[in-house]
Amino acid sequence: MTDHYDVVVAGAGPAGAQCARDAASRGYDVLLLETEAEDGFPRASNKSTGGTFPTMLASFNVPDDVVMHFTDNVVLESPNEQFVRRHPGAVLEFAEFKRFLVDDAREKGAEVRFDSRVSQPVMEGGEVVGVKYDGDSEVRAEVVVDATGPAAPLAKQLGVTDLERDHQAIGIEHEFEGVQLDHPDYADLTDGMMLRLDHEYAPGGYSWIFHTGEDTAKVGVCFIQNEAYKQYAGQERTVDGYLEHWLETDPRFENAERLPGKTHRGSAHIQPPGTMTTDNFIAVGDTVPTIDPLWGEGIHVGMESGRAAAITIDACLTHRDRDTSQEYIDLYNDLWHDDVAPKAVPRLLMTELLYFTSNERYDRLMRDLKRLDDDTLSKANAGSLRAISRLVHLDDIGLLTQFAKHRLSDDSWNIR
């Protein structure tokens, strides 16, 4: 007999596991399918820097014991300038965080099946009614949720997502001990999370140092191989090569030693979402994609997307007709744009323009941030055009014109 559930979630990352947690807590029959084996989970999918904020921990009842280190400051670096802002943060032990979410989903009543690779949707009458996994195994549900990330086997076959290669960010991170966090030539990174804008180390992207306690830190590089990358890449280096170049030339790493087994690789798409739902189906997390474009933080917004999916499912299944058609499941799109990632387009455009900017302009941006109040930065980060305009100068016209011409060739930004 074919199993039948109220909800089937493919993928036990933060977005999928949170959707399962919320839906199960509402009393629905939930099945969470995860590709990896339970033994050692997550081994292959332990790909996040784990940088987030205490507001996420509080909003989603995440315990402190999955936190490697609480931080006090956010630091922005350019080649010759630094900007420090007091803002509490949390660097997670990402594997423990994922295990907590899955275990908690189970405690709330969800069934979890590991070693269960979802391959395609089950269709009837042109609508998705379930999923196939592990070859011929099949399970049916009122609502199917794709939380598999960029692989998106369900969303792609249903025509719900259109992840573009030239918007794909790739990254690598190592964990080190012996990092000199208080080097006199740089801002003090003790109890800090730092992002560096510098095309020498991350052309068309950024690099980071996240303090994880004592003299240890997560250190990584991420960039998109788009026009900004092509413009600023000095030579043919892989992402590994750029990280090695940084490690070799930054004095903070002179005595640093890489911790064995603590290398993380990952990718995500930084682009506007298209359609995120269809009859009986929702895409969440990096399947959409859902990532904070400016800071690269995907955990909080991913969790929010999982919660928005659960709210949508609850609204559909408590409807007198248990209506999961596109008309009702489209509530998720409204929640995503209103609550999960408001002002997505201005923030995405601001991010791409930021990566398009020269190193000299990065230095000037840091000086601008230091002279402006924190309220301006917060509003700019939230996508306020008025606040963003305070960071723009008359001699930026050439840059803006060049960027506008580049953007006119890309129609993926035409969303609400």
From TrEMBL:
It comes from the Archaea. GO terms for molecular function: oxidoreductase activity, acting on the CH-CH group of donors, NAD or NADP as acceptor. SUPFAM superfamilies: FAD/NAD(P)-binding domain. GO terms for biological process: phospholipid biosynthetic process. Residues 193-245 form the Digeranylgeranylglycerophospholipid reductase catalytic domain. It holds the Pfam family FAD_oxidored. Keywords: FAD, Flavoprotein, Lipid biosynthesis, Lipid metabolism, Oxidoreductase, Phospholipid biosynthesis, Phospholipid metabolism. This is NAD(P)/FAD-dependent oxidoreductase. It comes from Salinirubellus salinus. The lineage of its organism: Archaea, Methanobacteriati, Methanobacteriota, Stenosarchaea group, Halobacteria.
